[in-house]
Amino acid sequence: MRKVALPEEVLVDVFGHYDENLKAIEKDLGVRVSARGTEVIVQGDPDKEALAANLIDQLVGVVRGGYALKRGDVEIAARLLRDNRSAVLHEFFAAGRLRATNGRYVTPKSLNQKLYLDAIRDNDLVIAIGPAGTGKTYLAVAAAVSHLSEKKVERIILCRPAVEAGEKLGFLPGDMAEKVDPYFRPLYDALYHLLDRDRANAQMERGAIEIAPLAFMRGRTLNNSFVILDEAQNTTSEQMKMFLTRLGANSKAVITGDITQVDLPPGRTSGLIEAQAVVAAVPGIRFVYFDESDVVRHHLVQSIIKAYEAYRNGRKPEPAVAPARPRRRGPSRRGARPSVDPAKRD
Questions:
Q1: Residue 283, helix vs strand vs coil
Q2: Distances in whole angstroms, Cα of residue 127 to Cα of each of 38, 71, 183, 235
Q3: Which of 144, 236, 291, 342 pairs as cysteine with 226 (C-beta 3.0–4.6 A)?
Q4: In whole angstroms, what is the distance from residue 221 CA to residue 319 CA?
Q5: Each residue of 187-221: pLDDT tens digit?
């Protein structure tokens, strides 16, 4: 059993609404947590007790540092300390968050996400590779919006190859913008979440935010821009080389992709896969890799990614154990009304 004393002024913030943060610690770390006044008592496995006590103690420092804990922050903090016992939560939450727009901050949800944002800040070209749901695209758009709002760049350019994901869409009606619109929907979603829809559309109308299919990038020099190439696993070798050589003065580029979901025709080499071997040693280019532990979507996504990885590697996925279904209880026999044949009713 371990006891952690908390200053009275941080109790509400650390405990959470109806002690939701303490309940999250119990669930994530497998310990029993109870509060008596300003003291928190942790019971369980000695190693888990130590981890939980460290987590609570560091949460006090985070709150005292001026950071307001939000829903989900405790789960993120617990995961960080499980992965790295020497992690400093104050540095992660207070110093690691990104100011995307006025009054809106984006906080990384894993250590790799923080390394990703740090890499974007410190390098002109970052290539992020990892499975779906790890925040590659959203964080890149958030960084781009931050650079634009702080006037570090004059425009954002969002780029994707127009490749169908395993099916042919056939003829798409409308002008060119309407034809490519479905391919860029994930980028629009991120923009509309970070900026309100009207503001984002106004920025696009005046050219501060540009949607550019990869096929139209040849011959351009992109100066004073923050450029994002999304779904880069679907670029060919030639397209990747073409994109990498578009970068102009005072510009940044972020390339994102999942090399396990290549939709190119058989026999075509993914430009993203090839780039890992070609430009890995070039100074100023930073690669950041994500895995299933960084997934921030539904909890099932992590399990799905692990199952597919096991299948590709020839391992048989462990069968899921279905929870026992509760046995239906009929009405109590005491005082129960006898059943009546409908035909015998008056």
A1: coil
A2: 47, 30, 20, 13
A3: 144
A4: 52
A5: 888 888 888 888 889 999 999 999 888 988 889 99
> Are 221 and 91 in contact, with CB atoms under 8 Å apart?
no
Q: Which residue has the higher pLDDT, 113 or 105?
A: 113
Read off the tokens for 88: 């400093």
pTM of the model: 0.77
Say yes or no to pLDDT of 162 above 80. no
- The predicted-structure confidence for 245-293, as pLDDT tens digits, reads as follows 999 999 999 999 999 999 898 889 999 999 999 999 999 999 999 988 8
Side chain identity, residue 141: V
Closest CA to 129 of 230, 285, 294, 257: 257
How long is the chain?
346
Sheet holding 32-36, edge to edge: 2-5, 39-43, 32-36
CA distance 280 to 126: 11
- Beta strand pairing call for 32-36 and 39-43: antiparallel
Letter string b/e over residues 194-229, b meaning 16 or more CB atoms within 10 A of that residue's CB:
bbeeeebeebbeeeebebbbbeebeeeebeebbbbb
Mean pLDDT of the chain: 84
**C-beta neighbour count of 118 within 10 angstroms:** 16
Q: Residue written as tokens 């540009």? A: 210
Secondary structure of residue 188 in the 3-state scheme: helix
Say how far apart CA 171 and CA 157 lie, in whole Å: 26
Which backbone phi and psi does 331 adopt, to 5 degrees?
A: -65, 150
